UniProtKB/TrEMBL annotation:
Protein location: Cell membrane
Cellular component GO terms held in the UniProt record: plasma membrane
Organism encoding this protein: marine sediment metagenome
PANTHER family: INNER MEMBRANE PROTEIN YHJD (PTHR30213), UPF0761 MEMBRANE PROTEIN YIHY (PTHR30213:SF0)
Membrane topology: Multi-pass membrane protein
Residue ranges of the TM segments: 50-69, 90-110, 130-148, 155-172, 192-214
Protein name in UniProt: Uncharacterized protein
Keywords: Cell membrane, Membrane, Transmembrane, Transmembrane helix
Family annotation (Pfam families): Virul_fac_BrkB
Length: 287
């Protein structure tokens, strides 16, 4: 699972100089640095140097990140009021715990299938990693789009947005990996420090893709409403109409004339045609 996560984040492609005097050309991968940092962290934890305060800081950072993401999601969905504190904590717990568990289960099942199915010598050995990466990304995006917004999100719309976002994210990940592996000067000039802006850039690209998928989810769910609003806006841009007291008097006069002539009741369409006024205005007057 660790190696799979490294590959998904392109960490395996990030390399820098090892600063070895005996071998100046020697490089070290970012994954090795991360393994070293994580190893020191758990070593310190086993010795009791990780305090309750530092643990609370990590939990607070994770919750604050999800809270910021939720506010951005609610803004796209035009939701003015957020969830209650308890409701938010339940959703955050589901994302932080159930999400990784589902992803890990998918990776485990896929790995067992490859092992026992003996498909590593077939064409599926090249297709399976790509499909697994796509499924995992789709599940992750779906959880974000379906759970975080404080409104009712249709599962069909969330799945559609997640599927497209996952496809774009995988394509961007591969292109970014080619860019990192082909751009060697950064490791020569900046060493390990060059990994910081590169990682931040990749996080920024990922965030743009997340928002793109969310916008697609919102558009899919409200497509009819958005179309109606666009048509109404197009009608308004064709011209404007200023109503006054004389307009209302003319409408009433047409109705009274039809009544005196014992004709059928005047419809809004007839009024619009005779007085050359917008249909929306005449309907409001009749109401």
């Amino acid at each position: 699972i660790k190696n799979f996560a490294y590959n998904q984040a392109n960490f395996s492609d990030f390399k820098s100089s090892a600063h070895d005097a005996d071998d100046p050309e020697k490089t070290v991968a970012l994954t090795e640095r991360l393994d070293e940092i994580v190893g020191k962290f758990f070593k310190g934890a086993s010795k009791g140097s990780i305090t309750l305060f530092s643990t609370l800081i990590v939990i607070w950072a994770a919750l604050a990140l999800l809270s910021t993401i939720e506010r951005a999601f609610n803004n796209i969905w035009h939701v003015g009021k957020g969830r209650s504190f308890l409701h938010r904590m339940i959703n955050y717990w589901a994302i932080l715990t159930l999400g990784p568990l589902l992803i890990g289960a998918g990776i485990y099942i896929s790995t067992k299938y490859v092992t026992f199915g003996r498909i590593q010598e077939t064409v599926l050995s090249n297709i399976a990693p790509v499909l697994l990466s796509y499924v995992v990304a789709t599940v992750a995006f779906f959880l974000l789009y379906f759970v975080l917004p404080n409104t009712k999100v249709q599962a069909k719309a969330a799945i559609g947005g997640a599927a497209v976002a996952a496809l774009v994210w995988i394509a961007a990940k591969n292109l970014f990996g080619y860019y990192v592996t082909g751009w060697k000067p950064y490791s020569t000039v900046y060493g390990v420090m060059a990994l910081v802006p590169i990682t931040v850039l990749w996080i920024y690209i990922t965030w743009l893709i997340v928002l793109f998928g969310l916008q697609l989810t919102f558009t899919t769910q409200h497509l009819k409403t958005l179309d109606a609003a666009e048509i109404a806006a197009a009608k308004e841009t064709e011209g404007y109409f200023i109503a006054n007291d004389l307009t209302a008097i003319n409408i009433v006069r047409e109705i009274a004339a039809a009544f005196e002539a014992n004709n059928a009741p005047v419809s809004p369409e007839v009024i619009c045609s005779k007085l050359d006024i917008p249909a929306e205005f005449s309907e409001k007057i009749f109401d």
